[in-house]
Queue: 4 jobs
Job 1
Amino acid sequence: MSVLQKAKQHYHSTMSGEMKSIKVEEWDETVYFKPNANFAQQGKILELHNKGKIAEALVETLMQRALTAEGKRMFNFGDKDTLLREVDPEIIVRIVSIINGTEKEVEDALGN
């Protein structure tokens, strides 16, 4: 087996693992997510972040990674404006920080 095949096999084993979840009390909803994301998913997020569009990067992360219990995307890309303008940003930050495994760093940055 080539190194590339081994790398792919490893990646697929991590992506097919059990979904994690976050209970969002304010929404009376549970958000599911897979522990890893691929570069295709992260590309747009990194591009927005590098342009200083942090709020858009957070919303993009939520749209890319938030799943239903059945593993389907919770939000579609038509929801972006609504998420940016009509949803509590602190909740989005909290969800995305948990998804990204950076909850403590985000809380520290926000002074919480």
Job 2
Amino acid sequence: MNIVLTGSLGHITKPLAIKLLERDHTVTIISSDVNKQSHIQSLGAMAATGSLTDTSFLAEIFKSADVAYCMTPPDFSAPDQIAWYEKVALSYADAIVASRIRRAIYLSSYGAHLPSGTGFITGSYRAEKILDALPGVLITHIRPTFFYYNLFAFIRMIKAAGFIGAVYGGDDKLAMVSPQDIASAVAEEMVRTDGHAKIRYVTSDDRTCNAIAQVLGTAIGKPNMKWNVLPPADVMKALLANGMSHHAAENLIELGLAVHSGILREDYEKHKPTLGNTRLEEFANEFADRYNQGSTQH
């Protein structure tokens, strides 16, 4: 198959490309960074450098493809993240129509069944609706849960306060996923011959927040560590003090409250997938390495 991947050499796209190349598929990776070209080619893939909002560029790359993997890279410089998701989705939609490609897989998110109340994930909901409106195109929305690596953001708090804290926590349930398991699910959907799934949830583990804190705490020598639920006003104050825009902070808090109330996982609960291969304990080793390095970069 001739397969086009967006996402440059990111957490999902790179392992996805490797899996597909090992199965002798022809892979083209789109990146906005020309400096990634040689690395992409070293994997055995072809590199296409351009912007995801350049519809003509996308259409030209999609033209000879059997299937395209479409994702929306975060743009933290965008004043409105939800509008950014819509902009990229509209570019994908126009490129799909112009290229006449008939199969696409979109990286969405759990919680994308809701039109509002989920912060940034509202962008995924709107993107799904834009792509679903395309006639004659088989679209699969991959809905991963909370990415393991987002837990790295709590390292600074743990070092300063000895606990994890957010507007959700305690006995709230949090489904988590490894990018490797997402890549495996996308690869499977690309080569399915028994029909296509319209929506596929992907997760690697599912625990309460306190159980997560205990596993991570044990890995870093703090086995009694807790995950505390903090007042939204306190979290907002901390986010703004750390330089986050008010709009982004509001979206992040709304998303956290959707975890706390349980609405984020309502549809996920109805369509629970088989767990992937990467359990929390395995990620905890990576978390401990990062914690001991004293770095929160990822």
Job 3
Amino acid sequence: MLPDGVAASRFLGANGCEEIYLSVEPPAGTPPGFAAQLAAVEARYAAALDSLGLGADTAVFRRVFLSDVLNQAYQVRGSALADNDAASPVAVSIVQQPPLGPDKAALLAYHVRAPQPLVKQRHGHNHVLVTRGGARHLWSVRLCGGAETAPADAEAQTRHMFDALTNALAAHGASMERHCQRTWIYLKDVDVFYRDMVIARTALFKQHGLTAKTHYIASTGIEGACAHQFDVVSMDAYSNLDMRPEQVFYLNDFDHMCATKDYDVTFERGTRLSYADRRHYYISGTASIDNAGRVMHRGDVLAQLDRALENIDAILRSGEAGLADMRYFIVYLRDRSDYDAVRARLSARMPGLPTVYVQGPVCRPEWLIELEGVAATGAAEPALPQF
């Protein structure tokens, strides 16, 4: 029995390796102060791990969502949610995206339980290398300029954080073009700085061989902030350092959505990664858009939610999956007053699915809501590597 405020989804592959996603929020009645809410999230997470029989060695990734990162991050770094176990490191993202409802903190966590324990190694302050079945998975978190004394422009900061990622990949004999599968990019004021980030990212991608004729990377570009006062751009990323080209398939449904290049942005709608016994579907931030790139249902958040879900289902169907295969959602809302209606609608459609609701304006002001997440299905492709 999971404690109040916790939802979990589990996927068990034929090889005996189980993946678990959890969302955790303070339960109703938690005192409003941040310390009490953080303690409630810690306690509920620990109780959920105990209920599921998950040890510290299974933890791979955590993202902690905060309402005021500059005043709260230091408390998270001193908590059980931080990466404080040198023997079993965890990639921990800390981002200011205020949880909705009365909460000041929320958690999304990813665990892997396998017949043979994971091998986890910390590489610098921002990277954790997880080795499983001979494949190396690099989780990169809190990549940013570290600007604490003076502001820098968004283009320069974007170049800096992508340079940090490419340097980390190169240290393992990998590249962004071949091995990075997912990025999450946070901008302090998305309405102001998004275009500068896109310009810098497009130039960097071209430099590294990612173009409209090759491919891009599944991504979410959304409002958020790291714990440095003058950073305007920050990023998390996931890379599979041993991914073969035949394992990767880019997801699109042009009856529902146009290619992102048609409106001058550079990311994939979704990416499917296939293994011998499973497929992972990394779904980029998806909103209410039609096949000509136009915003649909302006001013109607519930209609936009329905269209975004329709689009995600179409993306998944292009890779032989569907909404029922989703393992979690993050829901970004521009207007926090839409939370109750959106939560009621989505909970009715996807009951029990781990879901984190945060305030995070999307890159176009007319988009009131955006969703992202991961799906997983079984597979029987013995010629491919094991996960």
Job 4
Amino acid sequence: MKPFRRGTVDLRPNDNMSIFKKKRLLFATIIYWFLLVYIVAGIVWWFIALEQQNRQMMNFRMQQLRTDGSTYVKDAARIRLEAGRKTAQYIGEGLTFIVLFMAGAMFVYVPVRRQIKLQLQQQNFMMAVTHELKTPIAVAKLNLETLQKYKLEETRQQKIIQTAIHEISRLDTLANNILVSAQLESGRYQVARDELDLSDLVLTAAGDFRTRFPDRAWQLDIEPNILITGDSLLLRILSNNLIENAVKYSPRGSPISVRLKRENQQTVLQVLDQGPGIPSGERKNIFEIFYRVGNESTRTTQGTGLGLYLCKKIARDHHGHIDVSDNNPGGSIFTVVF
């Protein structure tokens, strides 16, 4: 069943909008650094002018000395010493101004640039969320209308129902990611500290995806009876996001592996895929909020940039950490160590 497209608007950012945002950020950056260089050049020019004046005063005072006087050498040395002190004073004041100004400029530049980039990411996020909401709603609505209008054979009905359930599950995952992300950011979410069977939780999450995607090749290696203290909702979100990420980026014929084991007094959860992988230059950014690999206007995969950010935050709240590495022969390995 193809997604319902009639009467919908594609709200994903287009190429022109993305280019305009980048040009605006580039223009603001160029203007900022131009003004910064201009002010530093003004300080340097101020130093040169004062130093020239200092040299002129020294030469004038030297000309006023009587060359036949017994104190000429002593007075000339004193005049040169005073001129040297003035030069040292100008250098010290100039360097102090430049250092303080550059420190203040960077103090302003870094958070302002970060805020501008965050604003652009938030705009992309809102567009992505809108698209992510409209598509599954349209698909589920079309499937239900089909069931209402036509009498279909049982196998066809089950297939349509399964498609609708799949889209509703996407909506549920998206809603959980948004709500939990907002609560964790604001500090309103109280992380539970219950003793859980992580093996059962991960096995259930993997089983749900295996039911939703029966055409995929699944490899589950989950050690039983691994207990952990934590929040069942957050750990379920973490597992779902990692597995969904593997499903999203893996070719249909490639296997998806989910592993859970105890190793050196630590609990290790791994999700392996054979997708395109993540460039090494992007790995430090993929766990940031709203960040997505590639160009927002040209990528074809669905997503909002919240999944991996939530995974990192949930792992940290459970005294763990998450990392990504290359899979062999291709793809990615996401590893969470508790």
